[in-house]
Amino acid sequence: MAATSTTSANDASYSAENIQVLEGLEAVRRRPGMYIGSTDQRGLHHLVREIVDNSVDEALAKHCDKITVRIGKDNVITVRDNGRGIPVDIHTKQKKSALEVIMTVLHAGGKFGGGGYKVSGGLHGVGASVVNALSEWCRVQVIRQGDTTGSIYQQEYKRGKPTSKVQIIGTGDEADHGTTTWFFADTKIFTAGHDYNTDSLEQWFRETAYLTKGLSITLIDEREDREATFYFEGGIVSFVRHLNRNRAVVNERPFYAIRETDDWAVEVALQYNDSYGESVHSFANNINTADGGTHLSGFRSGLTRTINDYARRNGFLKGEESLTGEDVREGLTAIVSVKLSEPQFEGQTKGKLGNAEMAGAVQSVVNESLGAYLEENPQVAKRVIEKCLTAARAREAARKARELVQRKGGLESFSLPGKLADCSERDPARSELYIVEGDSAGGTAKQGRDRRFQAILPLRGKILNVERARLDKMLQSNEIRTLITAMGTSVGEQFDAARLRYHRIIIMTDADVDGAHIRTLLLTFFYRHMEQLIREGRIYIAQPPLYRVASGKEHRWVYNEEQREAAMAELGGKVEVQRYKGLGEMNAEQLWTTTMDPENRTLMMVTIEDSIQANETFDMLMGSAVPPRKKFIQSHARDVVNLDV
Questions:
Q1: How many CB atoms lie within 10 A of CB 468?
Q2: Distance of CA 471 to CAs 336, 382, 493, 501, 577, Å?
């Protein structure tokens, strides 16, 4: 078919007059997602982060050791630091105060090689000005370090535009130098309101305090009458201890190394524990590089090489034997933190570091320092090597188990499990797999589904808790093997996300305690062995209704208690309420209408916003340590009777 070209009479009206130039911060208000990612709660928190990051940069430059963040009852955010104070003198080119330039001009700041900061998290000079643009109002006060008059400079703004000049409003104590920023997020931008989550902010502040030795960060939430201060003299060593607090450790004293040059600084801390997973987190200029990068690659290479070298020299390995990266990272908790003046991040989210020189820098530090640590601590080294050798034996057992299963037709896409009701669609992008609890619900789902693109996989009972099992034991579980086979990705070293047979994996379990437990077990499996699928947005949780509220011929499907009360009030008269604990209690048509029909259903995408918090949560809920899990259940359960963990 040939393409044809048509010309509309209206095309002639497209001229230079149609080209818009957005002045000042108007571009930020028009397209806020370009600057803060979204306008939901994450974007709202991003505003806080941008201002706090500026204060943290002062701390990295050794000019600040205290930051206070306050959430007022009126939802006004206040951020105060004791740094040098934003410059207030006149900017030569802009012909106005540097404070006003920083707050109202994009890509203006002291982080572009002008000597203001050697190391900083902000790269683009948009933080403060973006917060200003997306706030209904904003106010900044500055007391400059070294100003013997103690003058307090202030400027106010409304939706990014100054409503006053920078002026002296009084005097303070010279010792109180620093910057204080108040802002009230604009509800025209953030339509969900001021839904600040104190737990999320505390988690980030705790992480930042660990990474910035000697920095104290206080969060005060006046709405909940809640206050917390984070200060860790031990830095990332304390961070590693915190992450391992619920585990039995192999080396009681964590390994720690630091090296600084004129161009970069490298800090590494690590400690082994009795788990089977890996918990390695990397940072560049205090930014969590969730996708890794050159510094993480250098760490992994250095770790594998150093442990292999030590094992060979001391007779733990014979001939051509060697440990793999997976072997030496089993049960490892580590923090890799680098600081450099010109970081090169890949992507707007700064999730991956690209500086090539950092691979060699980190590898060199690990090779020299870890090698010395093992030589100086032979008993610790022996326990670490023995753990790595045990992991290697388990890996070999898993390989043999996988080969055996594959020879029998398992784990291969050409031999699908018998209990899988596959769909006719062969394009993974158009296909979805429902993982259903039990044969009863599975039968209903098979009858109610759209066979063209929906596949159904019923699982029998609760799958193995993979948090407490190595890969070889995991592959002995029929239910897990069935799941891996149906998905087509394989697992472990052979895992390949590109072979996924369905681009939407939907967990559909009953709305009771057992259903919640099965869902948690499945999420543990996906997080520990197929994390990439979660990060690619492939894993979902179905949201079946809890109640059917009916009056006469009318009925409503409702998903929580508030909706039930509203439906009962709306229908009035004699109302019948039916509670659905199990999916099998619905008929096929009802299950399709409420939970499986793309036109009507609600799916919850599983995401990882904070990998450190996610790792801690799975370890606490599914790990071997009972006390932290019991404490969590007691603090979160509404009605606990005869609690027994």
A1: 13
A2: 26, 24, 10, 22, 46
- Among 3-12, 70-79, 630-639, the minimum mean pLDDT is found in 3-12
Active site residue 610: no
d(CA 149, CA 152) in angstroms, rounded, equals: 9
d(Cα 255, Cα 131) in Å, to the nearest integer? 40
Q: Which of 186, 267, 432, 510 is catalytic?
A: 510
Active site residue 291: no
Q: Is 255 in contact with 329 (CB distance < 8 Å)?
A: no
Q: What percent of the chain has pLDDT over 90?
A: 63
Q: Per the residue annotation, which of 50, 53, 221, 437 is the catalytic one?
A: 437
Phi, psi (deg, nearest 5) at residue 623: -75, -175
Residue 263 designated active-site: no
Catalytic residue, candidates 514, 531, 585, 610: 514
Exposed / middle / buried, residue 562 (Cβ in 10 Å: 0-12, 13-18, 19+): exposed
Residue 21 has pLDDT above 90, yes or no: no
* Domain 26-230 listed as CATH 3.30.565.10: yes
CATH architecture of the domain with range 409-544+605-628: 3-Layer(aba) Sandwich (3.40)
Token output for 556: 């409503």
**8 Å CB contact between 141 and 150:** no
User: Active-site residue 512, yes or no?
Assistant: yes
Do the beta carbons of residue 557 and residue 594 sit within 8 Å?
A: yes
Domains 26-230 and 409-544+605-628 share a fold: no
How much is the average pLDDT of 21-47? 81
Q: Residues 512, 536, 570, 597: which is the catalytic one?
A: 512
**Cα atoms in the 13 Å half-sphere on the side-chain side of 329:** 19
Residue 595 predicted with pLDDT over 90: yes
Residue showing tokens 């700041």:
109
The confidence score (pLDDT) of residue 497 equals 95
Which is more confidently placed, 379 or 622?
A: 379
pLDDT in tens, 212-225: 999 999 999 999 99
Predicted pLDDT at 312? 95
The dotted CATH code for 236-398 is 3.30.230.10
Residue 6 pLDDT class (50, 70, 90 cuts): very low
CB count in 10 Å sphere of residue 204: 20
DSSP characters over 149-201: T-EEEEEEEETTEESS--EEEEE--GGG-EEEEEEEE-TTT-TT-----HHHH
All structural domains of the chain with their residue ranges: 26-230, 236-398, 409-544+605-628
> Above 60 in pLDDT, residue 618?
yes
SS3 485: helix
